[in-house]
Amino acid sequence: MRSIAVYGLKKCSTCIKAMAWLEANGMPFAFTDYRDNPIAPAVLAVLADELGGWEKLVNRASMTWRNLPAERKAPQTAQDWLALIAEFPALIRRPVMVDADGQVSVGFSEKKYSAIFA
Q1: Reduced to 3 states, what is the DSSP secondary structure of residue 17?
Q2: Residues catalogued as catalytic
């Protein structure tokens, strides 16, 4: 059985809540702060594919996205998305969780995690 992988930022309050929930529910996990340890482009591509596209992986409601120049907000290729994420890692939705079965989800709510791990 694979372990749960959680990707996020160590100071992100939503990531902290997600990890606290996993700990409280006895779910072992490995956390990766992607600002300190960038996610490999091949892994990012798999995560985006599993979620149904780059638009699902990137938080386009974030202040980081809103502050981008208009021409940067229309990535056309996977390479464009990867370059944007490499430059602005905070664009990735938080947290990204890959459960033991390889299912990928973004964000956290107790209801959502309870349903995933039921």
Answers
A1: helix
A2: 12
Under DSSP, is residue 31 helix (H, G, I), strand (E, B) or coil? strand
Helix-helix angle 41-51:78-87, to 10 degrees: 110
Integer angstrom CA distances of residue 114 from 18, 21, 79, 110, 111:
11, 9, 35, 6, 5
Q: How many Å apart are CA 27 and CA 97, to the nearest integer? A: 12
Low-confidence ranges of the chain (pLDDT < 50): 1
3-state DSSP assignment of residue 104: strand
> Distance (Å, rounded) from C-alpha 58 to C-alpha 74?
12
pLDDT, residue 1, reads 46
Please, what are the domains in the chain?
A: 4-116 (3.40.30.10)
Characterize the bridge pairing of strands 4-8 and 29-33. parallel
Is 5 strand, coil or helix? strand
**Hunting for tokens 């033991």 — which residue is that?**
100
